[in-house]
Amino acid sequence: MHLFRLLKIFSVSIRYGLDEFYLGHERVRGLRTLVSAVCFWRTLAEARAVRLRQALEALGPIFVKFGQVLSTRRDLLPPDIADELAKLQDRVPPFPAGEVMAILHRVYGKPGGQVLRDFSAEPVASASVAQVHLARLQDGTEVAVKVLRPGIAAVIAKDLALLHTGATLMEWLWADGRRLRPHEVVDEFAKHLEVELDLLREASNASQLRRNFKDSPLLLVPEVHWDYCSSEVMVMQRMHGTPVSQVAALREQGVDIPKLARAGVEIFFTQVFRDGFFHADMHPGNIRVMPDGRYVALDFGIMGTLTDIDKNYLAQNFLAFFRRDYRRVAQAHIESGWAPKDTRVDDFEAAIRAVCEPIFAKPLKEISFGRVLLRLFQTSRRFNIQVQPQLVLLQKTLLNIEGLGRDLDPDLDLWETAKPFLERWMSERIGWRGLVERIREEAPYWSTILPQLPRLLHQTLARQAQGVSSEELAKLAREAQRRNRLLAVIAVLLTLIVAVLLVAR
Question: Alpha-carbon distance 452 to 448, whole Å?
Answer without folding.
Answer: 7
